[in-house]
Amino acid sequence: MNTGTVAARTALATLLLFSFVLICSAGAPALPCEFYGTVTIDGSPAPAGTILSAKINDAERGRYVLEEAGTYGGPGTFDQRLKVVAEEGDLSSGSAQITFWIDGQKAWQETAFQPGVSMKLDLSVGGDAPAVTNVPSSDTLVHTVPETGTETNTIIQEIPVEAEITEEPIPEQQVQTDIQPVISDMPPQLPEMENPVPVTDSPADVLIADFVGEPVSGIVPLTVTFTDLSTGGPTMWAWDFGDGTTDTVANPVHQYMLPGSYTVRLTVSNQDSSATQLKEGYITVSDSGTLHADFTAQPTSGKPPLTVKFTDTSSGSPTMYAWTFGDGTGDMVANPTHTYTSPGKYTVNLTIADATGMSSTAARKDLIQVEGAVTPVPTLTPIPVPAVPQTFVGTVEIYGKPIQSGGTVEARIPGYDISGQFNPIKTAKGVFGKTGTFSPKLQVQGVPADSEIEFWVADEMTRMVRAYILQDDGTYLWTVPYQPGKETQLRLVVLKNPPNEIPPIPVTPVPTGCAGVPSIPMSIQGDVRITDGTEYLDADGTCYNCQPNIKIGGMIEARIEGHDVSGPENPFTMVSTGYFGSGNSSWADKLTIQGKCLPENSNITFWVKDDGWPRYTQAWVINEAIDDNETISVLGETREIPYEGGISRTVHLWAGPLPTVPPTPTPTPAPSAWEPQYFYGKAEFNGYPLRVGDRVMATREGIDLSNPTNPVSVLKFGEYGDLVGKEMLAVDVPYESMEQRDPITFWIKPQDFEYWYKAEVKNPLSSADWSDTYPFTPGSITNLDLRSNDRADFMYFYDIVETISNVILPDDYTGW
């Protein structure tokens, strides 16, 4: 290479650099810079789909979604790279600093914005900070030099701006080794850069409102923390909590003071637009007496083995408990203690139920954190990427008539939840949506392109039903494909009968069945008995403890299969205990059944929900007679009665099992008829399970309870008694010596201790707390947990013997 060639190249490079300086100083748009390299999270390659963001002054100026795990962009000419485009205000103070974000988490690395530069930059988040986080980038010149032949090759050489440019010849081998492998393939000056096309808002700039609340249910007073998840750069917030109160901060904390279901609305706005997110019935607040699961844990973090005490704080009257501790184990007591042996994060769930069958569940995600050498996988909050919606406007006909104002049009795609602020959408008379940039339209987004969209419509006279799409040529379609970014006009029609053959000119059929004429109402009055297990029949069939007892606030609903018979007086809410429909007029204060074209003698069934029940249960209709003593005799029962328009009828309803078999009286036991009561279960001392060889004994003050299996030795670690082998702790006494329900005291004697320690007892199947004694129930086998410690009441065995009479001891009672 001769001196002239070098001089020509040097001059050309100088000219390009000077031109670039002139462009920047003249206020022309700065060239973008580009980046590529590796992406790691806590030292592991970031998965495909990870979102990279580049920001200048906290404003996003570039975004890239990983297509390959651990790598973004590439050095090739046609490789996509993370492109950072600076706006006019970003460079007003000179050089701008670029920060990088990985799925919403700030990366360790950052660098200065340099127009026209493409550089390799490895990004990472989590783990230890790298030695260099502010990555320097040298000024890079891009120039082209004609080579031998007809092609023009791009030669890239890194030249410091301050370096002195000489005319010394550059060895050809040095030119090859100095060539950088990656430089932006974008020419430094393009014609459109001199007259740039105005940049339109990308989907990421569209203002979209969204939020979450935690928790979304609980008992009064319920404190909820709301978090704004809106995208598009909102600057103002307007919250409506549904209970008559509002707020204007981004992330408010609100307290609900009354029970109920609350709809929450968030409206966000900036200087360009606004958006609203409405979540109906989002917050559920229950009365303090309602069954609601809740619990606390202490401690919630530490090193293994970590023993955690869980305390049930549920409201209502739970009778059953089901815990899952997140490590594959669980328990069924109210307040369990559990030990975690492995490092990690554990989610804890508690499900409770009461005697009515109502249940409630509380979950605490990652509540327990056990420290250890294992590095936890970071939980990253992905940045939502809004999809470009397809919008729909058009007309709606139901059975040949325009849809009523206030009707509903909803788009559905099986397998996807596409509901949102504008899906479903309310209608005006005959139409839905409105053309125009800012007019409300039915929107579908967030699903794969070409997904098949169905349309469902309803108004006050019609339940939700699927609609046909009527085309201009008179043919029908069931669905249309999802086409993001497109506005589509539709003609939706609901037909009484699906067309077998699509006619060339559609004719909207006129309903030939019921024309919507209401039927003649039928009124119902009567009473309701909800069984509580105390009812029984005598030999003559007379029912005892069978008086009506449904609570005020309970509900009765009449149903006819295939017909909608709901109305202002169906379901009926109880205003007095036990009885309903006490008004003197034909229809006042009665359960009223009325529908459209109800056939006579249609079968009516009755469904009952007592106050506080979560759901309805079907009731029996009892045929009853009252004798001279006003006792109720159950003569027969059925599940339904016929619909008879225009009449009023009295019914007697029964919810729950019917008493059909007279109870067999319990015979009074003979003096020698007491059967032994056997005990088995878990036992612990000082918080540790009993060891094999430890002893357990039952006593009753003044009574000799000793026998070959009282006391008993522990044969299995942590348990006394053997249910399978029948080697259980037995309380066996003559009939005259004890009464049923007399309290029994239990004692534990660990090995190497010379005392017997008094134990607390608890039935693991009961919600009752620990107690000092347990009632004598002859003939039963009882699962009973025992616990004691060295601070409990204690006695020598001889002292215990002195408190009971006529004790018979074996010849050798060493160790008792």
Automatic annotation (TrEMBL):
<protein>
    <submittedName>
        <fullName>PKD</fullName>
    </submittedName>
</protein>
<feature type="domain" description="PKD">
    <location>
        <begin position="207"/>
        <end position="290"/>
    </location>
</feature>
<dbReference type="InterPro" id="IPR022409">
    <property type="entry name" value="PKD/Chitinase_dom"/>
</dbReference>
<feature type="domain" description="PKD">
    <location>
        <begin position="291"/>
        <end position="375"/>
    </location>
</feature>
<dbReference type="InterPro" id="IPR000601">
    <property type="entry name" value="PKD_dom"/>
</dbReference>
<dbReference type="Pfam" id="PF18911">
    <property type="entry name" value="PKD_4"/>
</dbReference>
<dbReference type="InterPro" id="IPR013783">
    <property type="entry name" value="Ig-like_fold"/>
</dbReference>
<dbReference type="InterPro" id="IPR035986">
    <property type="entry name" value="PKD_dom_sf"/>
</dbReference>
